[in-house]
UniProtKB/TrEMBL annotation:
SUPFAM superfamilies in UniProt: Clavaminate synthase-like (SSF51197)
PANTHER family on file: ECTOINE DIOXYGENASE, PHYTANOYL-COA DIOXYGENASE DOMAIN CONTAINING 1
Name of the protein in question: Phytanoyl-CoA dioxygenase
Organism, as annotated: Paraburkholderia xenovorans (strain LB400)
Cofactor(s) it depends on: Fe(2+)
C-alpha cells in the first residue's frame, strides 16, 4: 500500500488510488498525538468491561467462543468531540467530495478493538455491498464504476502484521464480487500496516478483513464509513447523537448526518405548497 504525506494527499491522488490503483492508500500523520490519545482513551473506556456489542464477519469466532476478544464501540460521535474532528478532517472531506459527490454522508463511525489473541474476520466487502454474497438482492448490472462506499481506518495502536493490521487484496475493487473460499485471499493479501494517527483510505469494494492479533498488546482503530447522499446509513447517526449535538453541528457535520438530503418525507403532510426539486426555483 502506498504511503503519502499529508501535503501530497490531494483529492486526485487519493481517488486515483481508490479507483484505478490498488483500492487503498495511507496518508501519514493526519491526526495529532493528542487526538489519538484522546480517541484511544474513550475507546478503551467504552470497551473495558462492557457487555458485548453487535459485530460483523465474525462467524468463526462466534463458533469458537472467542467473540469477547474483539470489541466494537459504536456511535462514537456521541462519545467525544475528537471523533467529530476525525470525521470532518479537511483532507478526508476533500477526497470524499470527489469520490462520492459533494453531498456525501457518513454511514458509521465506530471502533474495532482486537485484544491480544483476538480473532480476525471473514474476508469481505463493506456496506452497502456487505451482503453481496447474495447478488440477486442487488440491482441488475450493479458494478463498481461508481462508488457506494469509502472507508477510513485510523489506527489507535501500531498496525503491524503481528498486531492484526487489516489485510486486503489490491485491485479487487475493479470487479464487484464477494470473496469466496476459492479466491485464496490469505495467500494473495497485503497488509495495511500503519502508525497511530495515519489514515488509511480505501474503497470498501476491495476485499479485506481484520486479522488475528498475535501480539501481547491491544489493536484498536476508528473505522469511518462514508456513503453517497442516497444510500441509507448503516448507523442511525442522526437519531443517536441527539438534538443538542445537531443544534451545535457545523455545516459539514450537518451534511455528514444526512441533513442536507431531506428524503424520505411525508410529502402528503407538507403544509406549504412549493416547488421542491428541479433546476428552477427549487425550494427544498
Ligand atoms: O478492523 C479492521 O481491521 C477491519 C474491520 C472491517 O473491515 C470491518 O469491520 O468491516
Amino acid at each position: 500500500m502506498e504511503r503519502i504525506e499529508t501535503h501530497d494527499a490531494t483529492p486526485g491522488v487519493v481517488v486515483e488510488a481508490l479507483t484505478r490503483g490498488p483500492g487503498a492508500i495511507c496518508i501519514r500523520g493526519l491526526f495529532s498525538e493528542s487526538q489519538i490519545a484522546e480517541a484511544r482513551r474513550v475507546v478503551m473506556a467504552h470497551s473495558e468491561d462492557r457487555a458485548q456489542t453487535v459485530t460483523h464477519f465474525q462467524g468463526q469466532a462466534a463458533e469458537e467462543q472467542r467473540l469477547h476478544l474483539q470489541r466494537r464501540v459504536w456511535n462514537l460521535l456521541a462519545k467525544g468531540g475528537v471523533f467529530s474532528e476525525m470525521s470532518e478532517q479537511p483532507v478526508i472531506v476533500g477526497a470524499m467530495r470527489r469520490f462520492l459527490g459533494d453531498d456525501f454522508i457518513m454511514g458509521s463511525i465506530a471502533a474495532n478493538r482486537i485484544l491480544p489473541g483476538g480473532p480476525g474476520q471473514e474476508p469481505h466487502i463493506d456496506y452497502p455491498y456487505w451482503d453481496y454474497h447474495m447478488p440477486d438482492t442487488f440491482p441488475l448490472g450493479i458494478n463498481t464504476s461508481f462508488a457506494l462506499n469509502a472507508q477510513v481506518t485510523i489506527p489507535l495502536d501500531p498496525f503491524t502484521a503481528e498486531t492484526g493490521a487489516t489485510a486486503f487484496v489490491p485491485h479487487t475493487q475493479h470487479e464487484l464480487r464477494y470473496p469466496a473460499e476459492g479466491d485464496r485471499f490469505f495467500e494473495r493479501c497485503q497488509r495495511m500496516t500503519a502508525e497511530p494517527g495515519d489514515a488509511i483510505v480505501f474503497f470498501g469494494a476491495t476485499w479485506h478483513c481484520a486479522m488475528p492479533n498475535r501480539s501481547t498488546q491491544d489493536r484498536s482503530a476508528v473505522l469511518i464509513q462514508y456513503l453517497p447522499k442516497f444510500v441509507k446509513p448503516m448507523e442511525d447517526l442522526r437519531a443517536m447523537v441527539g438534538e443538542d449535538f445537531v443544534r451545535r453541528a457545523s455545516p459539514t457535520m450537518r451534511q455528514l448526518l444526512g441533513l442536507n438530503f431531506p428524503y424520505p418525507q411525508n410529502l402528503d403532510e407538507i403544509a406549504v405548497a412549493t416547488n421542491a426539486e428541479g433546476r428552477k426555483n427549487a425550494m427544498r
